[in-house]
UniProtKB/TrEMBL annotation:
Cofactor mode of binding and number, as noted: Binds 3 Mg(2+) ions per subunit.
Record localization: Cytoplasm
Stored NCBIfam families: lysS_bact, PRK00484.1
Protein name: Lysine--tRNA ligase
GO MF terms held by the record: ATP binding; lysine-tRNA ligase activity; magnesium ion binding; tRNA binding
Length: 482
RNA sequence: GGGCAGGUAGCUCAACGGCAGAGCAGGUGCCUUUUAAGCACUUGGUUCAGGGUUCGAAUCCCUGCCUGCCCA
């Protein structure tokens, strides 16, 4: 214990209680207490007189002298327990020593109190773990956002809605896997440490492999490896795991985030849009109980399919009132600024288009909307449209003013792919993944692909406004333990 | 990176230039069906850190740290 902690009376008293348990011959960090019932199951199937065995954390205590009530919380719910001197004899004093936060195992019989609350009359109890620090207030919960993120376990103990959000996240991810596997997709794992980070335009985290003496990068996307698997003969694959981007942190960005990428050989972006539409509807129905969502900016989002498709150029025409791509770059820039799009002085023409789209279309679209046929320059890994090579056969799914998922007809022409990547590399001082280009030359089947940002999807489906509310341990600047 | 807001008891929050407080939690006592249990008494503070202004600073000013929101 540090000097500072010794000064705290609350901590000292807990240590005194610990000593009191030891003095009574009881190990305050007990052993296993197996074969317990789940509280929610016991409550759902409640029978007076039924014997039950429970384990959990003490959340409240009402000590009445020769009897006491407490609430016990396990992973499924919470239930009142009751103990008195008459039933327990000299062991009753053990219960009187309990603190809020202690973890106990109890055995006894179910009954209802005068007021009808389902309760367990304790006949036997064991201390399973002594809590040496006070829990946050059971009534007010834990509101301090910094404490909630830094000590998520406390957030989870005292804030039921936080537990529920993470349970929903878990269900969403499980349902995605189930949905794709039912449709013949195989989950695969590809390198997270890559010699050449590719598949997206983002700054990677770098690291170093000592034995090989080579620099490595945490992946910014699995895309180029998944395509190698298409080349290798896997026809329906997905990877649902972490990507890492060395960028700022915000309400919508965490440096590590979870992404689904799925590829389907011999399909195209249209087919992927249908797949995505049915996947998201399935998730909304199984996890949110319906196809209606709401966010603070878009109070009513209706996911009822089919979802509309609209070409990128048409979106910009409707938002700006002009045939955007018929204008000169100078005219585009002027128009964007007139419409309130803030642009850096050195913004390229394509940046003007991108920012204008983000500000005037994406941010204002409740969706769901599939924006299709983006400019080729924006999407270097997608197939160009046959009729109009200035656009690519892709969609961008927008829901709730946010980009939720892109989908492509994947580019499988190794010569065009090389040109487009070289063009991109020239701009961004990235390295070219020659190994990927080599693989492409052996022939990759035409394929459809999608990427789905899981954290933002969970935000959307659970109505959370910050990515930190859907990631257990969001990145914060480390701090010394107080 | 820029702007704004915030950091006070274990938790939730007051006090806004004049004795640092409340509720809950904690402690002691009473209480064998309570449930935000109750009643009585009661402990608990580096007011984020450092500097400055002032007779006097949680409060005003400066610097730093951390967090949130907005913008880039």
């Amino acid at each position: 214990m540090s000097e500072h902690e010794e000064a705290s009376e609350l901590l000292r008293l807990r240590r005194d209680k610990l000593a009191a348990w030891l003095a009574r011959g009881i190990d305050p960090f007990g052993r296993a207490f197996p074969d317990t019932a789940s509280i929610s199951a016991l409550l759902a199937d409640f029978l007076e007189g039924r014997e039950a065995r429970l384990a959990g954390r003490i959340l409240s205590i009402r000590d009445m002298g020769k009897s006491l009530f407490a609430h016990l919380q396990d992973s499924s719910g919470k239930m009142q327990i009751y103990a008195n001197l008459q039933t327990l004899g000299e062991r009753f004093a053990d219960l009187k020593l309990l603190d809020l936060g202690d973890i106990v195992g109890v055995e006894g019989e179910c009954f209802r109190t005068k007021t009808g609350e389902k309760t367990l009359r304790v006949r036997h109890s064991e201390l399973l773990s002594k809590s040496l620090r006070p829990l946050p207030s059971k009534w007010h919960g834990l509101h301090d956002v910094e404490a909630r993120y830094r000590q998520r376990y406390l957030d989870l103990i005292v804030n039921p809605e936080v537990r529920e959000t993470f349970h929903q996240r878990i269900r969403i991810i499980r349902e995605i896997r189930r949905f794709l596997e039912e449709r013949g997709f195989l989950e695969v794992e590809t390198p997270m440490m890559q010699p050449v980070p590719g598949g997206a335009a983002a700054t990677p985290f770098s690291t170093f492999h000592e034995a090989l003496g080579i620099p490595l990068y945490l992946r910014i996307a699995p895309e180029l490896y998944l395509k190698r698997l298409l080349i290798g003969g896997f026809e329906r694959i997905f990877e649902l795991n972490r990507n890492f981007r060395n960028e700022g942190i915000s309400r919508k960005h965490n440096p590590e985030f979870t992404m689904l990428e799925a590829y389907w050989a011999f399909a195209d972006f249209e087919r992927m849009a249908e797949l995505l539409e049915s996947l998201v509807c399935h998730l909304a129905e199984t996890v949110c109980g319906g196809l209606r969502l709401s966010s603070s900016t878009f109070p009513s989002i209706d996911l009822q399919p089919p979802w509309p498709r609209k070409r990128f150029a048409d979106c910009l025409r409707d938002a700006t009132g002009k045939e955007w791509f018929s204008l000169s770059p100078e005219q585009r820039r002027k128009l964007a600024e007139e419409l309130g799009v803030e642009l850096l002085p050195n913004a390229q023409d394509i940046d003007v288009t991108r920012h204008t789209f983000e500000k005037l279309v994406e941010a204002r679209t409740a969706g769901p909307l599939f924006v299709t046929h983006l400019p080729t320059e924006l999407v270097p890994l997608a197939r160009q449209n046959r009729e109009d090579p200035s656009v690519v056969d892709v969609f961008e799914l927008i829901i709730g003013g946010q980009e939720v998922a892109p989908g492509y007809s994947e580019l499988n022409d190794p010569i065009v792919q090389r040109e487009r990547l070289e063009h991109q590399v020239g701009e961004e001082t990235q390295k070219l993944d020659e190994d990927f280009l080599l693989a492409l030359e052996y022939g990759m089947p035409p394929a459809g692909g999608i990427g789905l940002g899981i954290d933002r999807l969970v935000m959307l489906l659970t109505g959370r406004e910050s990515i930190r509310d859907v990631i257990f341990f969001p990145l914060l600047r480390p701090r010394e333990i107080p």
